Amino acid sequence: MRWLPNNWKPKAVAVDIDGTITDSNKRIHLGAIKALRDLEKSGIPVIIATGNVRGVTYGLWRFIGASGPMVCENGGVVWHPDWDKPIIRASGERAKDAAKHISNIIDIDANGINTNDWRESEWCLFPDEDLESIIKIIEESEFRDLSVVKTGFAIHLMEPHLSKGSGLLVALEKFGLSAEDVLAVGDAPNDIPMFQIVGHSVAVGGCFDELANVASVVSPHHRGDTFEPLVREILSD
Fold it and tell me: Is 80 exceeded by the pLDDT of residue 237?
């Protein structure tokens, strides 16, 4: 199969973490990491675009040997170590308050997932909480302006202007790249805004149907197995 459009090569690759270069137990796919390192060796920067927090993202960014910016918390935090400070695009306090409000009405764990201890722009509930009830409560509350976004690993409560797409645009402007020159790879609905702005997109095998519907290409390979053949074509003459 062809992974890329004719006569097009990405100048950077934006890649999700959870469910894309990990398995369902959040274990890293070593083949995907090797492929991303091959991109960096060839001069194509790797951009990490994730719903995860900045500390987790930076650790992975550093151990991969990535050089592109990081888009964390679904676009809520944009950062590169060479910058004076991270760009924090929202406060997570209202989202945290919204979680407490929900817990007063239905039985959920308002403390949410462990990484909330480090979240700067949003708040995340466990993915197996009652999504329909959460959405209904938010829509009928003072927090109705917040977005509720479910991924395979969390339910994100976040400001509506935040998305991987909007965060990636901020990162690319600061990094001096155009979205049309970027290839994005992901697995979940929170990757849709990113897929909608880049030049080309690949949904990994095992992705959510919603993402497959907007992806340029859907990989026949499961999750991290996507990267070796994809990168091979990117780096081919």
Answer: no
Residue 14: phi and psi, rounded to 5, are -100, 125
Structural contact between residues 156 and 149, judged by C-beta atoms closer than 8 angstroms: yes
**What span, in angstroms and rounded, lies between the C-alpha atoms of 90 and 145?**
13
DSSP 81-138: TTSSS-EE-S-SHHHHHHHHHHHTTS---TT-SGGGGG-SS-EEE-TTS-HHHHHHHH
In whole numbers, what is the pLDDT of the chain averaged over residues? 96
- Domain 12-86+162-235, classified CATH 3.40.50.1000, yes or no: yes
Q: Is the pTM of this model over 0.85?
A: yes
* Average pLDDT of the residues in 80-89: 96
In whole angstroms, what separates CA 111 from the centre of its chain?
Answer: 22
The two structure tokens encoding residue 175: 């990094």
Active site residue 16: yes
Confirm whether 12-86+162-235 and 93-158 share one CATH topology.
Answer: no
Residue 26 pLDDT grade (very low, low, confident, very high; cuts 50, 70, 90) = confident
